[in-house]
Amino acid sequence: MIDGCGREIDHLRLSLTERCNMACRYCAPSGQQRAGRQIDAGFAFELVRWLTQCHGIRHVRLTGGEPLLYRGLAPLIGRLAELGTLHELTLTTNGQALAGQAADLCAAGLKRINISLDTLVPERFTRLTRGGDLARTLAGIEAAIRHGLTPVKINVVAQRGLNDGELADMAQWGLSRGCVVRFLEAMPIGPLAGEVDKYLVPASEVLERLAERFVLHPIPQSIGQPATDYVATGQGLRGVIGVIAPTTRPFCASCRRIRITHRGRLVPCLHDERGVDLARWWDGRTLDTRGADGTLSAALQTKPALGPQNQSVTMLSLGG
To answer: Is residue 3 in a domain?
Structure first.
């Protein structure tokens, strides 16, 4: 797939559900956990089969809400893994329910996992996530490592005045377990944009804090890769640290992604409220690929060269 700006699109983020068992301040619009709907498993499978077999999608990441709350997750992963058309099938989770599912997900065919973890302080974790249990996420990380969902990538959203004082500690903790630790700038998006912007820690400052403890050597960046990765050495450790800076270092020019929400809405650009409905081509049993082809083609031409920052939907509903 080639969009209207000449970029090849081969990555899909598929949101399985809006439901979540936490309510992180940069994702959820209130302190209430969401008990939202989930995408039909047959529809999800047919979307991926169509996009991989007909349109060159090769990397699929399953998201939410919290995808581990999706009913029938392991069977769906098993069907997707059997397609044989994917280079990578991954999942992003908050890890709260991972300890009990890691073995099944690995057996089903999941190759790797990303886990959100913004602090190692239990009370702070509960406050930032509005109810999460740090011990459960840490147990999930250990289970993912034990069952081979590696390299586990730990995603840390740097937030000023909330967790910016422990960034080096988190890097050291993750590297000691063989994880890739990635630090993300808080992304002002949707109705939470004004609130989240207060907590922005720019990538340059993140790197300064990490450099106080580690020597960082940049790794050449592959096309379409949002993270700038570094080989980090120090404290008797060696591993990979990444920085993702969508706010101060936008990577729109090399974006290779599209998103599909749990409602079947195709969103070509995370920062653009424009999207199209693919669910109209699903009758509950089959996907009208001819109709979907036309909808997809038209949508790709609207993918902007630079995100216009007019998104009105929260990250929770978009699928991250």
So the answer is: no
